[in-house]
Amino acid sequence: MDPLMPSASQDSVEKFLDVPYNQRWECLKPVIVRVYIEENNKLANLSRRMEVEYSFNAQVHQYRYQFKKWGIKKRTVAEEKEAVITALGKRRLQDGTSTSDALINQGDFQKSVDKKQLKRYINQSIRENEQITWTPGLFLRHDLPYAALFRRSSGNDNPSPSVIGPTTPDFVDVKSPHGGPSPSASHNSLSPTMQLIQKKVLFDRAIFFLSGREDDLLAQLDRDEKKSTATWLHDFWMYSFMTAKYWGRGPKTWTFSLINFKSFAKHLVPPTPDHHITFEETSESSSSTAIVPPFDSPTQLCRWTIHHEDPEYEDIPSPPSQSSDEPDARFDIDDESTWSQWRTDDLSRDLASTIGKGLQENAFSAIQPESLPLDANSIVKAVERSPKELEAEGFSFAIISRNRDAIYKIARYRRDRLRECYSDISPFHLAARFLDGGKTCCMVMDVLLTELDDSLSIGVNYIDKSGLTVLDTLFVTIIRSHSTVPPQTLGNAFTGQTRYPGQEVDPCGRWDADSPCIRHLYASGEPAIPSQWKHMFCHTSVQAICHCIASIFGVEWRPDINTPSGLFLKRCGHCGLELKVSPLHALVLTALCLANGGMPGENLFGIIACLVCLLTFRADPCATAKISISLLSGHDPGDDCQHPEINPAELAVLLFEENSGTWTSEIILGWKVLIAILQHDVAKRRDKPTHHEDECEDEEDDVEVCSHYIHEFEEERLSKSVYCGNQRLGAVWALIQAELLTYRRLNEDEPWLSPRFDMRILLEGLESDDDTCLQMLVRGAEEAGENLLQNYSRCGLFYGAKNPMCALREEACTSYYANLDDWERTTFIQPMEC
Fold first, then answer.
1. Are residues 632 and 672 in the same domain?
2. Is residue 203 part of a domain?
3. Which residues does 628 contact at the CB level (< 8 Å), separation at least 6?
4. How many other CB atoms sit within 10 Å of the CB of residue 27?
5. What is the total count of domains within the chain?
6. What are phi and psi of 790, to 5 degrees?
7. Which residue from 783, 781, 784, 788 is spatially nearest to 735, judged by alpha carbons?
8. Which terminus, N or C, of the chain has the lesser number of Cβ atoms within 10 Å?
């Protein structure tokens, strides 16, 4: 909006000669700015011209002061260049867009963009950031397709995908062409400067992604750009997951069509990325009770694993199998039993390199890299020059897909490449988060514990960056899979989270990340597992959790089982004290989540099993913590501190008094058993007048010392792993192990507990301090007094078990009375390593 500029021939009135000197600066401002900025004169020349042409005498330093006062500068600063690049970048696909369309507001004047300065800035910026690295776990986060990601983002403070790109700052004006995106606005039709701007925009977006700045990336994208980016990243996630999951058998290369054909189970694939999803189509509220099409609903009946010792037999060589890449080799992609194992030379291939090659070739997605609103080539190059990071990413996908062979080979032969990136992936936490009791049980955790030692061991890496222990993660897996409790309830580590990570894998084995039900669920726009898919904390999940606990705290390099929990953290608003809880307090609060938000049929047997397992491996029931019931319940505690120091048994009693009025009779019974076990064990441990509490010997007079052979290993290691000061607790642990080894619900109308494990009899025995009731459970009411269990020690471990941390069915039971004979739902796996 520049006015007409006066010239040297104009009369004295236009030169403002009659105006006082100090006021002439503002009157002559348009002339001064034109001569300096538009005609590109230096300050000395500007001073001479103004004196000659306008009889205005001022020194160079005076001009410098006035320009600073007016906010006018010839040089375009980095902030202005970035704003111009962003503004023009939004319009880069519109016909006729040019750098001349952008003007920078300075005071009351507008300055055009210096193309040379802009080019130098862009080229320098790209050179400085070309070697950027990335952090492992980056691709692991993109497990949701666009529709589900949209719903999740609309529920919190993240930028909504409906926002049409970044806003243009007030100090930049851009003339926008009337037309929208045009086919003629291709890269080659742009001016050289606009081509460079487009390169910078796409490059910066790639940098945002590689730096983990997803929010900044989203702020740069309009809705369609968000959709194509999210779809492409999710396609790569699915490719990486399925490549890792099936590594060693079946297809050697997973293409986009092959991935969709298997994971969508030949149903209609959701709309392609060029289909517009409007805000109205996806703005419905996201809830755990969303209705899902019937064919997407998984069964309520679990799968299960049986640890099994293979019988000894004479190995007879088999004829060589056909490799799946031979012309006459055939397999049914829907029937994994037809998939052949890879040949030895194929097994030497590298998982991480294959994942990297897939990214390079883009065979995993229908979206081509050149159509993405970010520079995919920069992402590929960053991955190529980061082999250690890629190895860690491949290791992560092997863990979440539970491919034990792939995990073993990476952990054993490539561990040195993992060291630098190890803390970024937290492998033990990943194993606890993606637990699968239906096919692998505790075996992924066991492989990690066995193969990762020294600085990579769980003893060193028990707590992740968010402050959660591996045991905490197991508790979160329980709550996530078997209740409707939202993540925010679990404390500060989950602030802002609306969705549990790891929910793609069901610990009962009923669905996986590539299962059709999950893929259709996410494609429909639902980011959370519907509550009708879930069921109570069942035996399959319980066994996997307990076996993981036994694995973690049974190894010589185990962490301290009494490490304070990172769950349910609260801070007193009055004194500012951070209220941390012990692992057993956290277990009681996990039980509360199941009691208040659990699924129909919940009886707390699973939590009781976890409690006894933790006590067996020396969790301390006497440990106290400052706890605010008001804060945990979401109530305002008032102006006074209300966080008494209590042990887990006292916490359980207080929670029972406050909540039991709304519980079912099964939960009330289970909670009473929980309290009774805690109180009984606290009393036993406090009744030690002459021995230290850590002594693994019988502290009562005239009672035989525990003779299980595990204590010989403890003496050799000078470290105790098992507590055996409570014989009654040992009997309960033996009963729980037998229950988990012999019973599953085969039909939906059957009970969750077998008749051999009667919670009422157990409660009566604990409360009456009478072993007769426990002996009734050991012998079984229908077996006429014959023991159902093999001999077990005071600490509840079976004498005949090769691995006392994970007894087999035949090592725990005197006869075969299991009902796990549905082979279609059974997976036989090897025993845990001793």
1. yes
2. no
3. 570, 572, 579, 637, 642, 643
4. 16
5. 2
6. -70, 170
7. 788
8. N
- Which neighbouring-strand residues pair with 786? none
Residues 432-473 pLDDT 10s:
999 999 999 999 999 999 999 899 999 999 999 999 999 999
Closest CA to 807 of 554, 547, 606: 547
- With CA atoms as reference, report the closest residue to 30 among 13, 14, 6, 57: 6
Domain that holds residue 804: 711-834
On whether both 667 and 780 belong to a single domain, the answer is no
Do residues 589 and 676 both lie within one domain?
A: yes
**Do 567 and 640 belong together in one domain?**
yes
Phi-psi region of 671 (alpha: psi -120 to 50; beta: other; left: phi over 0): alpha
Question: What type of residue sits at position 756?
Answer: R
- Gap between the Cα atoms of 463 and 540, Å rounded: 26
pLDDT over threshold 70, residue 719? yes
Residue 788 has φ and ψ, to the nearest 5°, of: -85, -20
Alpha-carbon gap, residue 743 to 723, rounded angstroms: 27
Instruction: Tell whether 583 is covered by a domain.
Output: yes
Mean pLDDT of the chain: 83
CA distance 824 to 244: 24
Residue the block writes with tokens 């039980």: 591
Residue type, 100: S
pLDDT in tens, 788-807: 899 999 999 999 999 988 99
Alpha carbon distance 626, 644 (integer Å) = 5
Residues 570 and 649 grouped into a single domain: yes
**CB within 8 A of 257, min separation 6: which ones?**
none
Please give the C-alpha separations between residue 570 and each of 470, 491, 564, in angstroms, as whole numbers: 20, 7, 13
Paired strand residues for 111: 104
Residue 659 backbone dihedrals phi, psi, to 5 degrees: -115, -15
Residue scoring higher pLDDT (93 or 517): 517
